[in-house]
Amino acid sequence: MKRTALILIDVQQGFDHPKWGIRNNPDAERNIARLLARWRTLSLPIIHIQHLSATANSPLAPDQPGCDFKPEAQPIDGEPVFGKQVNSAFIGTGLDQFLKEHGIHNLIIAGFTTDHCVSTTTRMAGNLGYGTILVSDATATFNRRGLDGVNISADAIHNVHLASLDGEFCKVRGTDEILTDFT
């Protein structure tokens, strides 16, 4: 268990901005908070990833209030924070080196958004050889307009990404399953 880190990706206030559209899974933050509380209780490694957008008017730009972490996922002393400017938490951050230096071989991933940074980081984690679990109900995404102009629901996008990741790059499990395993 000591070698299993909880990685929270982009749990930032900027994802509450209306520009993103309609979101699925309104319980994601509650489940993230439950995971975080358990990891802290068990003194297991916790790593926060923060998107630092290079786009000046982005809600996730460093000078915007949306760059701040949500209250449910505020880092505390001793919990490393890695800032990134691309979708993968492994590119340009030193995350892989940190995990190797600390003997961490297994990852539990949660955060925002399912089809962008969460998916990209999960894929890379699997490719780098980490035992990876993606928490299905502790991540969420937003609706999008398809190339044909048809709206694609956030639930559909979320479910397709979970299905394509499961068994190939990670195991997809729910918060309750994980909390049962980490008691």
From TrEMBL:
CDD domains per UniProt: nicotinamidase_related
Keyword Secreted in record: no
UniProt entry keywords in alphabetical sequence: Hydrolase
One Pfam family per UniProt: Isochorismatase
Keyword Heme on entry: no
Name listed for the protein in its UniProt record: Isochorismatase
GO molecular function, one term: hydrolase activity
Originating species: Methylomonas methanica
Domain Isochorismatase-like: residue ranges: 4-145
